[in-house]
């Protein structure tokens, strides 16, 4: 199954009472596919505020996205957690709803061993028949899925890719050592062009909510051999890549991108506690990125 080169980790739109805004969710899905050129969507990942979504809300979002996308892009469900049994349960339920694949974050907080990570992922993958994508984000989980563990997991038939936020050294080793057909995606927007150069397949992106069409153009230029033009686009987009994550006080994702969407007229609402909306200073900075 091809998930494409550009995958958006979709925010979850909320109404004034911080409940899921279904009308805006539909509009956002259309916008990400049609206007921002995303090939696939991750539903209920970190950017979707998964820690504060109930299981019922997650299942409703998976079902809604599958129905609304209607085959126009692949729908990837964020079903990972730090409880293997619950990850299996939610993954099975998501599979029943027709999602195309699962994104499985490394078990956070309890910080298992590398063997524990392997057994966790193996158990989830064997419990479903759809493709599974590893998600390595040490800055949030407190644990790194090491190169050897990722390569070992790549040989499990339905573990088909990784979204990895590690450095180029780790990604290079995975690209060169993983099973044939295993695809490596970066989870860092500013690494989109660099990771393509070492053989990674694409990006699972936050910035593609607002500059997805430009990112797709950059990717296509590189793949077509127009490296200089790709580099020029990267240079143009780099302040936005950095700004969405470093705006003045390093606000946690998805704070900045939700504000950016609201500024651009795609109303996605606020954030559930413990995340906070941007300050006036932060809001002005984010708006300035698009002037």
Short recap of the structure:
The protein has helices at residues 22-35, 55-69, 84-96, 114-127, 138-141, 147-153, 168-177, 192-197, 208-223, 227-246, 255-263, 280-288, and strands at 6-9, 40-43, 74-78, 101-105, 132-136, 159-164, 183-186, 202-205. With 291 residues, the protein is an alpha/beta fold.
Please give a structural write-up.
It is found in: Cytoplasm. It is built from twelve helices and eight strands. The chain has 291 residues and is an alpha/beta fold. The chain has an eight-stranded parallel beta barrel, surrounded by five helices. The radius of gyration is 18 Å and the shape is globular. The mean pLDDT is 97.
Class computed from helices, strands and strand pairing: alpha/beta
User: How would the global form be characterised?
Assistant: globular
Number of helices: 12
End-to-end distance: 38 Å
């Amino acid at each position: 199954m091809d998930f494409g080169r550009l995958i958006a980790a979709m925010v979850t739109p909320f109404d004034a009472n911080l409940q899921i805004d279904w009308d805006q969710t539909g509009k956002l899905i259309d916008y990400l596919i049609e206007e921002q050129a995303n090939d696939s969507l991750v539903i209920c990942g970190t950017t979707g505020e998964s820690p504060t979504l109930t299981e019922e809300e997650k299942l409703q979002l998976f079902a809604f996205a599958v129905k609304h996308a209607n085959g126009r892009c692949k729908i990837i469900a964020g079903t990972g957690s730090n409880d293997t049994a619950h990850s299996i349960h939610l993954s099975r339920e998501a599979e029943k709803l027709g999602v195309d694949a699962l994104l499985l974050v490394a078990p956070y907080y309890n910080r298992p061993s590398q063997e524990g990570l392997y057994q966790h992922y193996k158990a989830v993958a064997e419990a479903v028949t759809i493709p599974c994508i590893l998600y390595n984000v040490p800055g949030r989980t407190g644990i790194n899925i090491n190169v050897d563990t990722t390569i070992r997991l790549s040989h499990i038939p339905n573990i088909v890719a990784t979204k990895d936020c590690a450095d180029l050294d780790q990604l290079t080793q995975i690209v060169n050592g993983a099973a044939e057909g295993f695809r490596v995606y970066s989870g860092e927007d500013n690494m989109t062009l660099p990771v393509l150069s070492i053989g990674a397949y694409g990006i699972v992106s936050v910035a593609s909510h607002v500059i997805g069409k430009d990112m797709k153009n950059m990717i296509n230029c590189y793949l077509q051999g127009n490296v200089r033009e790709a580099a020029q686009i990267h240079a143009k987009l780099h302040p936005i890549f950095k700004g969405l994550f470093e705006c003045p006080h390093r606000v946690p994702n998805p704070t900045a991108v939700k504000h950016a969407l609201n500024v651009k007229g795609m109303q996605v609402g606020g954030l559930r506690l413990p995340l906070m909306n941007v300050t006036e200073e932060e809001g002005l900075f984010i708006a300035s990125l698009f002037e």
